[in-house]
Amino acid sequence: MVKKSLSEQAYELIKADIITCSLKPGVQIAQPSLVEKYGIGMTPIREAMQRLSQEGFVTPIPRFGYTVAPITFSDVREIYELRSILESAAARLAALRGNQHDLDQLEENADFSYVYGERRSYSRFLDENAKFHRKIAEISGNQRLMDTISTVLDGLTRIFYLGLDLKDSAEEMRTSHIALAGALKERDADKAEQLVKEEVDVSRKRVLLALTHQLDDGFPPDLGNSLQI
What we know:
Number of helices: 9
Number of domains: 2
Radius of gyration: 19 Å
Distance between the termini: 47 Å
CATH topology of the largest domain: Four Helix Bundle (Hemerythrin (Met), subunit A)
């Protein structure tokens, strides 16, 4: 196995903390504090931050360091609109076209959850959630649709973490996934499409409420204006 460079290690550690919101959206971070936190030298940290900046996870602040990219109301609105359109279409196609064995397997894999307040379980849950929704897209038989949904889900990971921290919705989400898998197994395309739209809307409202709470708790002054509905 090829050993990862210190720069690569720093990149993966910082990115993971950004995605899981351990480094909160909008927070300002100086590179020396990252050196101390991760126990990695300044040069690898600098290289990692430059890479994260190119990918849009952080924004440079002249003569200071970086700001973790905020999550805006506009971001949430646009990505959830896109998710609703894409995933409801995938569910309809999966119900109409799906191989019965795949639909049966999806139902078996729909029973997953998380423990509220236990952040490690959040990561496991979000991995299972992404697999579940990607599988529906795969069953739809449209590769381009699957690729696009995968990209959207990747971009939602950090947003999902905000919603999970707001309140305990574990049983609600578990029930929603089981119901959707059941509708697909029954090949009820209308019901499956409607359940996806409802699930996406509930998730959108949960994240918007979490963003509102963060704003009430005090975003950095220079970032507050970016939170426009």
